[in-house]
User: Fold this.
Amino acid sequence: SRSLTHQQAMSSASSSGSAGASSLTGRQRPAPRGRRLCIGVLALGAGSVALRSVGAFAGLGEIARLDAVALRSRHEALHRGARTRLEATSQSDLPAAWRAGPAEIYSGQAQKALYLMKESPLLFEEALEQELEALQAQKEEDNKAKAAMEADAKEDTLVLRKRIEEVKQNERIRIVTELLYLKVCRKFQQLQVPLIPVLKKGGDVKFGNINLKGLTTDIYSKDALELVRDHLFRIVGQSGNPSLMGGMGVVQIALFQAGQVYAMSAMFGYYLRRVDARYQLEKIAGNFGAWGDEAPESSASPFAEDQTAANSLKAYISSFGLDEVQSMWAVTSVEAQMAMETQVTALFGDLRALKEKLVSAVGMVGSPEEAEQKLQQAISRNEVESMKITSDDLRRLVLEAVAYGSLLNDSEKQVDSIYELTPASSRSRGVLPGEDDEG
Assistant:
């Protein structure tokens, strides 16, 4: 017979392994004062850009009945002579309208999901959910076995068992991280917005034109979009840099700077999504009297003291205390944290290594102006990796990073409803690639 059941189709796949944009070009805003200098520089202004002020980061049954011969033929053609891993950057295998992310995919579960995202996108979500359910069942079985073993096992057996459990847990975290990453890539695919290519080699950067609506009005509320605009102006439209306010102004910056801009913007997008969801929920709750029949006291309703907070996300955030800001800024799961680092590292390389090289080239500095001058000299002597980028492409880079963080937050919640994600420790929450304990 030429028809496959849904399970057979899954198995066969597994074997293969702008309205919003125009609103973001408003007037310039003054840049905040430069931050302190340590041994070297974290994010230095390069050329005319003062990036050091970066902001604080159905049924499906009918579809499943595929022709067995055709599917097997596509599978064999896809993997004949291929490497044992699939790369999300394999441009020759992807439709021209989109690209998956730049990160490499290794696990069999993620390879299967990537194949379906390219060949049968409508099957992607169901296949991913099935993989997550299987991993959750495996996790629960391991926990039961661990509890039974601890009850009557000897000490040396417990040590060995603990080590085996750690290996299994780390493997599950890696698999779920890749599935979570691909889920974010799938959201970009649905928005018809291709992710930017790998930038590790630096040089002249050209992304091409896209409709930025998919990175702005399609994914944010009106309140959140206002804060995205502010974040963009802090980076691209800083005071004293008129060449970057529209047009095709070109600036040369260190690759570490670009990577840190992307990482901080992704963190900002993740934070913004969390805060906006809470803001909208609390505003609805207040409007429907969820705070009680009596008039709400200031301690009960977040909108009681300042009525403008009910109409302004920015004012709502301004009312947060330090502890609340730190809590909301945190990436809540290890898997989401790793998915964010995976994207940044795949694009720019190891930010820690880039930072060390930049600090070594610049050396001791006494002022931001001296730091910028020394950095420019280091770039001209090719002592640090750098890239030339136009204002339009820098704008797209920032908007993509913010969108990546926002969509990662959405995907994290969806995955966590199926598979119990690993809570991030308080020390590691919010840590960006390239940062260290010294800041």
Notes: The two ends are 63 Å apart (CA to CA). Residues 1-97, 239-245, 293-305, 427-431 have pLDDT under 50 and may be disordered.
